[in-house]
Structure formats: structure tokens, C-alpha cells
Specification:
Elements: H1 18-25, H2 44-57, H3 70-77, H4 81-94, E1 97-99, E2 105-107, H5 112-125, H6 130-151, H7 154-173, H8 178-191, H9 195-208, H10 212-218, H11 222-239, H12 242-262, H13 274-282
Antiparallel strand pairs: 1-2
Length: 283
């Protein structure tokens, strides 16, 4: 009721402050029982890094453009020099800035190697297994071979031929071929001509292909089977035969898993950083 006794329409009643309502609902007119969560404030050096990153991503800083000095940057952003330095160091780790000459930093475009390395670390933290990675490459590698059969050029074919010749020589000498195996597949993926494809598969490949080392050392025929498969794949690519390239790559990736199992290696355990795999196998 109003002061003169007339009924008041609830829709025209004065609005009450939501915080006051919450405080009274909790049992206090003055809101003493109302509690806010602490704000999650990013460290200042991260804000510095994000500010510069935004300038690069939105095109106001182009690759090759020189950044201000630490002192100038600190003054412009209103932070101390050590904070500016930490922000720049973070950006340098991501590949968004680089030192071309001297001490001055320049804006840059991260290469697929830097990006895939970070993605590989994320996969390790997710504790992906051999099976997880193998399933992914079973989808990607045959498709890459099929597409490369229509796009690959003479330079890449020559690079694959050199790679295969060196692989054969190392097998005859009983030497490791993991790096050459990885390179063979990288050349094919690069020949697709799709940078998104290249980055998507490389993070998994960085972890899976080094797993061949312990298998090769336990199965005498494994290196020879790899060489034979690579030869068939290269023949398909050279002939521009999409289906042959796809099918031999599919067989090759399946054979990788079979060899891993025949060697008695676990396929359902989290993979490890390539530098730690040999140590893990010996433990």
C-alpha cells in the first residue's frame, strides 16, 4: 500500500540493489555476510606479452618490425624494466619475437617447428599413448601420401630419393635411422602444400616416430621392412599414383604398430619425451 492507502503495482515499485538483496537474504541488512571471490589477476609480465602479441596478431606490428627497447617499452606501458623484460622473454619463447642481430627484438612468425614442439609438450601433459598417436597418424599419413602424389615436385622427389639412399646405407651399417624416417614423412607432408596440415600432424609425429628406435633394435627385419615400404611409397609418388601411395603408406603405418607389438613394447602406456624413451626402455 502507498502512504495514502492506494495499492502499489509491483512492476512500478522502486528497484532494490541486487547486492543489498543478496546481503539481506543472507541475514544482514548491511551486506556484511556478502562475500565476493578474489579476482584472478594475470601477472603484469603476461599482460605486457599479451599487449604486444595483440599488436602482432592484428597486423599493427609486421614480421620484421623492430620492437622498442626494454626501457622505452617499460615507459610506454607504465611498468618497470624487469617486467617488460619478462614479457619479451615469454614472447621470444613462443616465437612471436626474435633477435635478428644485436640485442634488439623484432616481430616474427613462429615456424611450424616451434608451434609443433609446444603442441607436443601439451600432448605429453595429456599422457597420450602410443595407440592414441598411432590412430591419429593412421588417418593423416595415408591421406598425406595420396594428396602429395598430385602435388609433389621434382625437388621433393629428389630429396626423398637422397633420404632413402642414406637410410639404406645406415641400415647396412647397423646405424639408427629414426631421424631419416621422420624426415621422409615430413617431406611428404610438406609436399601437400597445406601449412595447417603440416602443423596438425607434426606434434604427434614428433612423439611417435622416435618410438621406432627400441623396436628397430629388437627386430632385425624391421629396418629392412621400413626401407622396402619407403621405396614403394616413393614409387607411387613418382608415378603420381594416388591409390598406390595411399595404400603403401597405410600398410607402412600398420606395420609400425605390428612391429611395436612384436617387440613386446607397451602400446597403452603414456609416451615419453623422445630424449627419455631410451632411458625408459632400459628401466
Amino acid at each position: 500500500m502507498s502512504a495514502d492507502g492506494a495499492a502499489v503495482d509491483p512492476s512500478h515499485a522502486p528497484a532494490r540493489d541486487s547486492a543489498t538483496q543478496a546481503g539481506q537474504g543472507a541475514g544482514g541488512e548491511d551486506g556484511d555476510s556478502l562475500h565476493f571471490r578474489k579476482l584472478a589477476v594475470a601477472p603484469t609480465y603476461r599482460v605486457v606479452a599479451e599487449t604486444i602479441e595483440r599488436e602482432i596478431m592484428e597486423g599493427r606490428l609486421q614480421p620484421g618490425d623492430r620492437l622498442p627497447s626494454e626501457t622505452a617499452l617499460a615507459e610506454q606501458l607504465g611498468v618497470n624494466r624487469s617486467t617488460a623484460r619478462e614479457g619479451l622473454r615469454l614472447l621470444e619463447q613462443t616465437g612471436l619475437v626474435e633477435r635478428k642481430s644485436g640485442r634488439r627484438l623484432h616481430a616474427a612468425i613462429p615456424g611450424h617447428v616451434e608451434l609443433s614442439t609446444r603442441a607436443s609438450r601439451a600432448l605429453l601433459l595429456q599422457q597420450v599413448t602410443f595407440i592414441d598417436l598411432h590412430q591419429l597418424l593412421m588417418a593423416l599419413e595415408p591421406a598425406a601420401a595420396a594428396m602429395a602424389a598430385t602435388t609433389i615436385g621434382e625437388d621433393d622427389l629428389a630429396a626423398l630419393e637422397r633420404n632413402l639412399a642414406e637410410t639404406e646405407a645406415r641400415v647396412e651399417r647397423g646405424e639408427t635411422i629414426t631421424a631419416l624416417d621422420t624426415e621422409f614423412h615430413e617431406i611428404i607432408s610438406a609436399a601437400v602444400g597445406n601449412p595447417a596440415w603440416l602443423m596438425a600432424r607434426e606434434a604427434a609425429a614428433k612423439l611417435l616416430f622416435p618410438a621406432a628406435d627400441p623396436m628397430m633394435s629388437r627386430l632385425d627385419q624391421a629396418p629392412h621392412r621400413l626401407v622396402a615400404a619407403h621405396r614403394r611409397i616413393l614409387d607411387g609418388l613418382r608415378a603420381g599414383d594416388v591409390e598406390a601411395a595411399r595404400e603403401w603408406m597405410r600398410k607402412h603405418i600398420i606395420d609400425f604398430k605390428r612391429g611395436y607389438e612384436l617387440a613386446g613394447l607397451p602400446t597403452d602406456r603414456p609416451v615419453h619425451h623422445p630424449l627419455n624413451q631410451e632411458k625408459d626402455e632400459q628401466s
